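Hi D.,

Good news: the full-assembly prediction came through. Inputs first.
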Amino acid sequence: MPYDPSAFPPFAVTVDLVVLTVRRHALCALAVRRGEPPFQGRWALPGGFVRADEDLAQAAARELAEETALRAHDQTVPAPDNGAHLEQLATYGDPKRDPRMRVVSVAHLALAPDLPAPRAGGDASYARWAPVDELLQQSGYGRDEEPVAPLAFDHAQILADGVERARSKIEYSSLATAFCPTEFTVGELRRVYEAVWGVALDPRNFHRKVTGTPGFLVPTGGTTTRQGGRPAQLFRAGGATLLNPPMLRPEV
Amino acid sequence: MPYDPSAFPPFAVTVDLVVLTVRRHALCALAVRRGEPPFQGRWALPGGFVRADEDLAQAAARELAEETALRAHDQTVPAPDNGAHLEQLATYGDPKRDPRMRVVSVAHLALAPDLPAPRAGGDASYARWAPVDELLQQSGYGRDEEPVAPLAFDHAQILADGVERARSKIEYSSLATAFCPTEFTVGELRRVYEAVWGVALDPRNFHRKVTGTPGFLVPTGGTTTRQGGRPAQLFRAGGATLLNPPMLRPEV
DNA sequence: GATCATAGTCGTCTGCCTGACGATAAACAC
DNA sequence: GTGTTTATCGTCAGGCAGACGACTATGATC
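Then the structure:
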């Protein structure tokens, strides 16, 4: 395998982002509208070329910042500030995935707390948070009866892979806290699990489980009633990243 | 982000392989000796350029076949024949990971049963199975007091990531059977877990666990005494790919 | 052939975790 | 105050895992 520079075909390398958050009890992803062919006018995942002097993680963090003003937080560590969790997802390199040329895309997965409207590059209709169910139902209809075209390129596959990664990873890691603000209640954390998994969880058993797992949650001392009802204790994410024993996702 | 062909830097894209097997109670990886600079004479992971018309998985399967004469089996499905399990691992793209040019490597993980000596491209000392402990201890000494140089490029990191993936994945999937021949005994499967995790497992509890998990193992009816002692039942991998509940890796 | 070593297989028991609840507490809306 | 909502504490039964005893069936050794 000689590394003769003339012996290998040139590739374009991009990063694409699956940015997930939980809004109004639904798992949502960031989507941008394509302004040019191919797939002009269709929704796609945010992304862009990796620069010549840039690491893959740097490129993903840069794209994330450009789209959301989120500081990317280095992977594997739960975000202590309001930075998002960012980790590499998978790489997609089908020769025909981009009709114009050979593009290999290194997809990354970002998990963020609920944010204000996405910041667009000056264009209001450029980017939006869309429920993943809506983005993934091919040619289906969204909540307001508007027809939804499939995502551009192979982005539906990438999004599905990212969602599946998030679903399984909150089972055995403390990553669900990345969907929450710095301080949160047990109920808010439970609603994250319910939104991501799409199931209802028993509040009493959930409370016992998460408060009984050492290192998962640390109480801040404060309370809040922002959810209504009895005031709830506020917690911050503890240092533990791996949950042992894991949270159990209920039956299919 | 226009796709102007002059606007993106060209990359070389390679696949590198972490090929794991279990030999003599030790987890081993396939290593090849580099015949040219950089890192000439050092051990490295097998790999090569992705061709212009080739998918990433195809490239990985081709490289695997060239190095080991293993038919690659498509990912997520446990190999029913003697093909190896193959799945994408992660992508490594540090700008300085190859001193000559910008190379992005899509690493793949392959799990194979114990094989005869690796097939080299005519050169006997070209490739070998090496215990991962030996390959990963930087500048350490191998079993026979021979000094071991670190792997070339960032291959130590890639190998470590692959080993960690294998360690965690046999917990909740039936992937450990990919290390076994088509027919195997419960004891042989247990020794796979022991080698990969580096721990001792109770044979009685292990037997109860794996035979009690529906879809994991199907008896073939035959028995064997190739391990000595009382004849053991032979099994084949069942259809189940996900183990629920998972195998529990003992405490650190 | 008796004995031993080696592996495999079946049971038992105990502790822990989970799921399924009941019950109580503390806020807000009327 | 009454009702509603959410949070939090308890209780109980079933299931699974770890620890370990007991028995079986082969080959090796004397």
